[in-house]
Amino acid sequence: MKDVLYQLMDRIATRLKGYDYHLDRSVPLNLVLGIMLRRFAWLCRGVVKCLVLQRRFRLIYIAPQVNLRNASLIRFGQGVTLERGVLIDGLSSHGVEFGDNVMIGSYSIVRASILGNLGAGLRMGKNSAVDAYSFIGAAGQITIGENVIMGQHVSFHAENHNYELTDIPIKYQGTRRLGIVIEDDCWIGSNVVFLDGSHVETGCVIGAGSVVRGRIPAYSVAVGSPARVVKSRLLVDGELSRAPSVRAGGMA
Prior knowledge:
It is a single chain. This protein is an alpha/beta fold. The chain has one domain: Hexapeptide repeat proteins (UDP N-Acetylglucosamine Acyltransferase, domain 1), CATH 2.160.10.10. The protein has helices at about 1-15, 30-55, and strands spanning about 60, 65-70, 75, 80, 85-90, 95-100, 105, 110, 120-125, 130, 135, 140-145, 150, 155, 160, 175, 180, 185-190, 195, 200, 205, 210, 215, 220-225, 230, 235, 240. The protein has a nine-stranded mixed beta sheet with strand order 1-4-7-10-13-18-21-24-25. Strands 2-5-8-11-14-19-22 form a seven-stranded parallel beta sheet, with no helix packed on it. The radius of gyration is 20 Å and the shape is globular.
């Protein structure tokens, strides 16, 4: 009977997620059922919020204390999860868009604009996730690809302040925005900071605590502040190839 229940929940999870999913059999069944019930409550809350705020039907999971501001400018794919305390403000020229099965970790913030300075917005591809206490400041356009996984306390700052003039306070000199791009299949460690103009190509690994600026080539492993490429993930004769220590260029 126990195995039948696990198989049933596997099928339900696979159907909802859209890819083959198997529960870890070492997790006690009573705990699995408790998690499933909690997720069902989040699903009910998400369906109701989408219907009320957006007049759309979406199967999304919304935990308690989630704050959706300017919700008409937020677009959800199916299966999106917003964990406890998330704040998302859709106010931006291109809006905020989440693909299927995106997860935003607890107490994370997505914000693009203030009323006096409209920002560009965010697009996050399917099956991507950012963990707890992260900040996505999408004043410049931020594009995150598919299957991107990110740790806790990751931050994006897609805007720079002008500071060339010394007779005018920096806060009154305006900003410039190049935007940030993270391509598909990247792994971003905890406490990574992305500065305006960053472009991380497909398949990269960015080490915890790194500060990224400029371009990181595809399939690179980069670490440090500023982030430097230390090796490539591409295979050469069955071994990981070494890449030269190339500094990621660009202004902070």
